[in-house]
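Dear colleague,

Thank you for sharing your sequence with our group. We've completed the structure prediction you requested, and as agreed, I am returning the results in plain text so they can be pasted directly into your records. Please verify that the sequence below matches your submission; if there's any discrepancy, let me know and we will rerun it promptly.
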Amino acid sequence: MSPRDRSGGLDGVLVVAKPSGPTSHDVVGLVRRLSSTRRVGHGGTLDPFAAGVLPVFLGRATRLVEYHLGASKRYRATICFGETSTTDDIDGDRTTIEGPPVTRVAVKAALAGMTGPLRQVPPVYSAVQIAGRRAYQMARAGEAVELAPRDVVMHELTLLEWDDTDPARPTAVVDVACSAGTYVRALARDLGARLETGAYLGALVRTASGGFRLEDAIPFDVLREHAADGPAGIARVMLPIDAGLEELPHAPITEDEIRRLGEGLITAPKTPLVPRDAPLVLAVGPDGRVVAVCRAVSGALHPHKVLAERPATAGRPDARVAPDARVAPDAG
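Please find the predicted structure tokens below.
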């Protein structure tokens, strides 16, 4: 299988180990330049000060980003007590809070009480939109920001390290497994409130995003080393476009069935579907490449998003991409 899409750019997934400092958009720009690929997007924003797993999608893989955005995340969060922050993290203006001493026992008990479904108010310095404006833009302008709480799930909250060398300013390192859409900055803020003191996020590393793990991610310096060989060097460390979606059913189909899906037609594959009914199925062509995302209904494939290019026919120019194809924007 070729890692290149038909436009000449690369076609697949890069799991990047983002360092603290650059934005997620900066990472996308770097990958776009190094890979000579126009269509590039990422699978969930990391704040500039945060580091860790950032899946980056190239070529046809950009059209699958939406199926990754709801994946659970895992973080290693450093939470600092005794102060609040205007941004709920280390980059904001901080205010000392006089409260009761914070202990390891109290932190573990509070974390246990925050595990499970939660209603969480996003930080005022966030990208949440209010009447078409970003909350952080309003906050920077000195305007009052009122954000509605959202439903999130804290799957696991585990205290990994505790440092009370300075009893007035103890710190905790917490393993956080949570649903998509969770703000770990808000978790730190709310943990401090539960303990009747202040708290903010001092550091953050995303250790997993769906099926992508930090131990498998590519650091910037390694990425640049591969890029010394041009796009072919980047291609060597890329994953297939369906990386991270391995748990979805995969249905082998023929060239004629690809054509039918490309024309928006419901298709009953020659190879029986397993399962016969599923909300998402990846249709795979004879060359092993994913060509469409479908719904399976009673053993037939209903096209939802067709990735394969439609061949030119008499009286019709080369369509290049199926009618529903769009360039996926940078996620987040």
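Summary note from our side: The longest strand covers residues 150-163.

Kind regards,
the structure core
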